Amino acid sequence: MKEEDLLALLALQHTPNIGDITAKKLIAHCGSPSAIYKEKKHKIAHIERIGSTILKNLFDPIHRKEAEREWQYIQDNHIKYYTFFDPDYPANLKQIIDAPIIFFYNGNIDLKNKKTLSIVGTRQVTSYGRAFCEKFIEELSALEDLVIISGFAYGVDITAHKAAMNNGLQTIACLAHGLDIIYPASHKKYVSEVKNNGGFITEFWHKSKFDRKNFIGRNRIIAGLSDATVVIESALKGGSLVTADMAFSYDRDVFAIPGRADDTYSQGCNQLIKTDKARLITSAADLVYYMGWEIEETSAKPIAAELFVELSEEEEKIITYLKEHGKQTLDDLSRECSFPIHKLSNLLFQIEMKGIIRPLPGKVFALIS
Hints:
This protein is an alpha/beta fold.
């Protein structure tokens, strides 16, 4: 992209009342970012929802001056960035309506052909939540192309980042401020390791004030980058629920870990499940199953089958067929056992939760010996 267009993008980003949706509308109308500032005002005024306040702000020269200062900082500090119009702009993020027109990053981020999972939750994570998060990511580490995304905050966020790095996974920290500061300060000790195993992403300029209102912007990037979002623990109100709501609105998969009804930091997860905004999961195997992700059979950890489990007639029919014919594809089981795919998928999941079968690559299912 030409420098003039980059400066125009930065000026748009700095202008009050012009969000990413409006900015893209202006660019589409005028043909390029820089063309906006060459267009006649009365023509821009005819664009839907472009009122007098936006028009006045748009042509205020202060935004161009601030853009030039930020561009100089970007160049002087070798800051990497993506614009919405770059061919390698992250595909998942590009699909959301309010994707940032430009964002900045550092480290060794690689999102090409990756599975992306955001893991979020309360800052006041319990010992149970921390242990679950660590075990969950350890089990998912068999997915070598998995990227763990979170917000680098206290609690669940930093637990997820550390667990990802400990298990050789790439991790991305999305920030609610510029790349020139780290918050919380106590997490500075993890910065180098995160950069070596992924990196940091933000849409905020350097010297941006740490402000809670920035969390909304940060959370939409977390949700937008991800194929799926998992909420480990949350109270009835909190940033992780905002991220989950955003992921749900972007038509992404959302999962939540259930807990006891009277546990403060399970209430948010339980509410997501109760309102059908999230699927209930209790293990990495659940997530892999729902997402249709494949783990190499040699990497899968065997799960011992329970003794004396209760089975429905339908479940027994499936198990009997697998005993007689060995591992089978989902389509073959559907045809031979006379179950529609949607019903069979639910039955297989129930049997898997009882420790009797396991999923294999290619939507194949086999009995656990």
